Amino acid sequence: AIHPVGQDIADHLRAIHQAQRRDLAAARTLATSLVAGRAPAGAARSLRVQCVRLCQFLHAHHTAEDRLMFPALTRSAPTQAAVFARLQQDHVQLNALLHTLQAAADRVMTTDAAGSRENLERLLGRLETLLLRHLSEEEDGVVPTLQTWSRMPF
């Protein structure tokens, strides 16, 4: 049965994921404008800030999920342990990409080479593909268990 506390926890997770989707879309839009030569002055700096903030937030979010949420989910729904483990494996892959993306964002600030901007745009596209799939799968896989929680178990 759905518990009001669990529903609040699930709604909070969805809100965080929605913010991640929004921030990624904004970074992709700015990167595309920069590559096309349509970006305003200072766009490279803004893009770097957006990318660094997004990477740091995603990494912190994944770390909290891995250390707190997934162990609690596994205790609550042991039959879903394989789903939770697969989502944690996604975090490993995503975190490696985030490291590469953050380094690429730094290079955009140190060079005007079109290649560095195109590489950053490509990496943001890869992040979008992986992250959007992951967020959907995570919501489908964990929300039903979260909704049953009557308290925060950690």
In terms of topology, how is this protein built?
Elements: H1 4-36, H2 43-76, H3 81-110, H4 114-146
Task: Put the structure in a nutshell.
With 154 residues, the chain is mainly alpha-helical. It has four helices and no strands. The protein has helices at residues 4-36, 43-76, 81-110, 114-146.
Structure characterization notes:
This protein has 154 residues and is mainly α. It is built from four helices and no strands. The protein has helices at residues 4-36, 43-76, 81-110, 114-146. The radius of gyration is 18 Å and the shape is elongated. The model has no long low-confidence stretch (mean pLDDT 95).
Strand runs, count = 0
Tell me roughly what share of residues is in helical segments.
over 70%
Which descriptor suits the 3D outline?
A: elongated
Radius of gyration: 18 Å
Q: Averaging pLDDT over every residue, what do you get? A: 95
Class inferred from helices and paired strands: mainly alpha
Main sheet record:
none
- Tell me the number of helical segments per DSSP (H or I, 4 or more residues long): 4
Key attributes of the depicted protein:
154 residues; mainly alpha; elongated; 84% helix; 4 helices
